[in-house]
Each structure stands twice: as structure tokens, then as C-alpha cells.
Batch of 2 targets.
Target 1
Amino acid sequence: MIDSLVIIPTYNEIENIESIIRVVFKLEKEFHVLIVDDNSPDGTAAKVKTLQKEFSGKLFIEVRKEKAGLGTAYIHGFRWAIEKKYDYIFEMDADFSHTPADLIRLYNACVQGADVAVGSRYVKGVNVVNWPLYRVLLSYGASFYVKFFTGMRVHDPTAGFMCYKRNVLEAIDLSAVHFVGYAFQIEMKFRAHLRKYKIVEVPIVFTDRVLGKSKMNSSIVREAIFGVLKMKWMSLFRKHNFKG
Ligand SMILES: Nc1nc2c(ncn2[C@@H]2O[C@H](COP(=O)(O)OP(=O)(O)OP(=O)(O)O)[C@@H](O)[C@H]2O)c(=O)[nH]1
Ligand SMILES: [Mg+2]
């Protein structure tokens, strides 16, 4: 029985999807892969369906009706993974910003005692390649902002390269998760932190996407800025709701 599922949300990733799937299946450790595609107009889902013939029993796809944000795509994937009883559930982007070989390092961190492993760019300095300066400043700045308001000792709270043990995702009330962009990543870590799960950061190097288009936009940034304040507020005054 394969214990690990990598969830990859996709929206218009036709240039990346086949290669990322092939690279994951070539790793030394065996992973299953679930693509959560939001009906990408570029045919990403159709490509995955073709590849399913070659990777039968280990490549899965869920297609949603329309683009509904990365956070809800992950929630969809988490529910799927919990139902199928995977022990280690990963988040990874399709665009090679995350190095698939690091999945094994995240896995090892969880096997060695972490409840949540975070592929972290900012454990020591800033390990980001080819991002424009404003993106680095935004992301690095966010890490101080989040630490200040939440008290969470995570250097890279917006990180989207993660491994969760299944019991963590089972304990969190997924239907109560509010946010969809970077704030979603912060919220998931904050919920795990409030429940006192052990969060371990694994240093990684993050490289800007080479192919395809970014889906980052100003509303995602705004959601994160105001979202952190809202999360803190909710955790103080509606603790049970937020902890759930
Ligand atoms: N299913 C789904 N996937 C999404 C959505 N938005 C983004 N994604 C995927 O989530 C991953 C991260 O999105 P990116 O656009 O790379 O966001 P980013 O890494 O913050 O920004 P860039 O690296 O600059 O592009 C990629 O695999 C995207 O295809 C969405 O609304 N639905
Ligand atoms: Mg990206």
C-alpha cells in the first residue's frame, strides 16, 4: 500500500503538467498523484487523462467546474485523500517552483516526528531563485507580519510545499477554512499551530516558474494582509470555531 499522495492543483498548466507528473513517478520513493484541475481552458485535464493510461492506479484527477482558487482545490484534494486513507498528504505546485525530489525530504521529516512539514524558503536567509524583487519582498515581509500577529514560529508561513499527516487534516474542520490564496496557506498552518501540532521546516530552494503564467494577483495579496488580522481576531474571540 502506497502511503503518500501528492496533490497538485492546476489551472492552465499544459506546459508543465506532463513533465511534473513524470518527474514525481521517477522518484526513489513511490507517490500517488492527485491533480485537482479547475476545468483549465488549455486542456490540462485532458492531458492528465491521457497519462492515466500509462500511470494507471497511481495518477488520479478531479475536475471542478470552474476556477475556484487554490485553497478550495486543496480542500477538495484533502477530503479525497482522507477518504482513501493516505497517511502522508502533500501539497505541491505544478510549475516546478518546488523541486519534486524535496517531497522525500518532507516525507522523512514527518516520518521522523513532524505532524506538518513545511518546505521553507526562509530558514536561513532567502532561498528564492529568479523571483522579481517585489515578490521576494512581499513574501519575506509576509513572514515577519504573520509571525508578529499570530505568534507562530514559522519562517515561511505562505509556503505551499507541504506534507501533512492524515490525522492533522482529519482534526481540522476543513469546512470552516475561510481563505483561498496565500492566506489559505497561512490559515492551515495557524490551525495546526493552535492545535499544537509539531510543525517542522525543511529548507528548500524555490525557483520561479519557467513555463506558464502566474495566477497571483492583488486580491490574493489583499486577502492575506487582511486575512491574518481576521484569523488572529477569530482565534482570540471565537476560539473554538477557529481551532476547529
Ligand atoms: N485548481 C486550481 N489550481 C490553481 C488555481 N490557482 C492556482 N492554481 C495552481 O496552484 C499552483 C500555484 O499557483 P501559481 O500561479 O504558480 O502561484 P504562485 O506560485 O504563487 O505564483 P507564480 O509562481 O508566480 O506563478 C499552480 O500549480 C497553479 O496551477 C485555482 O484557482 N484552481
Ligand atoms: Mg508558482
Target 2
Amino acid sequence: MSVFEGKSVLVLGGSRGIGAAIVRRFASEGAKVLFTYLSSPGDAEVLAAETGSEALRADSGDRDTLIALIGSLGPLDVLVVNSGILGAGDPLDMPPNDIDRLFRINIHAPYHAAVAAARNMPDGGRIIFIGSANADRMPMSGLAAYSASKSALKGMSKGLARDFGARGITVNVVQPGPTDTDMNPAKGPLKEVMHGFMAIRRHATSAEISGLVVYLAGPEAGIITGAAYNIDGGFAA
Ligand SMILES: NC(=O)c1ccc[n+]([C@@H]2O[C@H](COP(=O)([O-])OP(=O)(O)OC[C@H]3O[C@@H](n4cnc5c(N)ncnc54)[C@H](OP(=O)(O)O)[C@@H]3O)[C@@H](O)[C@H]2O)c1
């Protein structure tokens, strides 16, 4: 029997890419998986049917909806905050409202979701943020807001690890490098540039990222907290 049998897992932003791989992996390990989506109801419906998970429409950029949703779900053993947006461009041209929305989705949502989940989380629960290796290395222009948002998760996980540690709840960040998804296709125009920053010159697969998430959610990782793990082919090395 898998260690996740009977465990309740919520993945924010699970309809596509890395989030969908995380949903698949937990479902295959016997967990009861719920995931949120926003703009991809078709993908969400197919994934839910394929994995036996439940899809819930909720905008991670809407704080109050997110807090109310999480409060209504009952105790969660594992929360994974994967929803994130990129937003690249010249900072002099980027509309302030777009930057604020990026911060709401990439920073505010992880914080409020983690606190809302922790209210009912059993002792030994797990909170995992999907950050980015760009928190540790930002070798390209046009991504300052994005890298700032991912760096914020490192401080957030350290602080929340202290807040919830007495209950055995761990809080960690998984920081992917280039990973083959709609956000960053392995065959995209920037692939040579990105691979040039890496020791292992290829995109990761979403399944590789989900493996680290599942490890951090499992019993062998009970002493790991307040940590950030690059899984990036040496992008930040
Ligand atoms: N791919 C990479 O190279 C890479 C590298 C480092 C870090 N990351 C991080 O990994 C995470 C996943 O990235 P990805 O590459 O899988 O991206 P993706 O292919 O663009 O998928 C993003 C997922 O997040 C969901 N999402 C986005 N905004 C949302 C919102 N406001 N509310 C609810 N769900 C929302 C999307 O759902 P809908 O389509 O239903 O809206 C989708 O399921 C992100 O946090 C990203 O920053 C990715």
C-alpha cells in the first residue's frame, strides 16, 4: 500500500504542465487529489477523468475566493502551490496592473493558501511551493518581477517552517529550471540560450519535477523544512 493511500492532496494550478504531472503522480500513489484550474476547463476535465481526481475552478489571483475554498475542503494532508505566471518584458513597458497580478498569483496566493491550509492540516502535513531556479540565478533580462516572486517563496517557506514546525508540518520550495511545458516548451526559440546556462543541457520533464514533490511530501522527508531545492540541470550551479 502506498504511503499516500487515504491522504488528501490539493494542487493549486493542476490542469496543465508541472501541476498536471503532480496530480497524476499523487493519484497514481493512491491519494485523494483535488486540483484547481482557471483558464483550461477542458484540460482539467480530461485530467480529472483520467486520474479520478476532482477539478475545482478557482483563480489563484483572487485571495478571498482561495481562502474560502481551502477553508471549505476539510483537512488537507498535502498542499502544493504550483499555479504561477511568467510575465516577461521590458519593465519600462509592463503595465503595473500586470505586475500586481503576477505578484498576487505568485506570492500572495502561496502565502494565503498555506495559512488557510495550515488551519486544519493534521500534524505532519506538507506544504510545497513550486518556485524557480530563477530565485537563485537570473541570467536574462525582462524577468525581474518573476524572479522576485520566486525568491519571495524562499523567505516565505523559511518563516512558515518556523510557524508550523511544532506540529511537524514541513514547508519547502521546489525550484525547477527549464521544464518542458506550455510556459517553456523544450523546442521554443530560447532553448539554446537556456541550455547554454545548464550543466545538463536539456529541459526537465514535468514527471521529473513531480518526483521531487512526492519525495518531499512523503515520510522520509519529515525532517526537511524551510529548504529550497533546485531541480534544474545545474542552471543555478
Ligand atoms: N516550465 C518551466 O520551465 C518552469 C521553470 C521554473 C518554474 N516553473 C514554475 O512551475 C509552475 C508551473 O509552471 P508550468 O511550466 O507547468 O506552467 P504552465 O504550463 O503555464 O501551467 C500553469 C498552470 O498553472 C495554472 N494557473 C496559472 N494561473 C492560475 C490562476 N490564476 N489560478 C489557477 N490556476 C492558474 C494553469 O491553469 P489554467 O491553464 O487552467 O489557468 C496551469 O495549470 C509555475 O509556478 C512556474 O513559475 C516553471
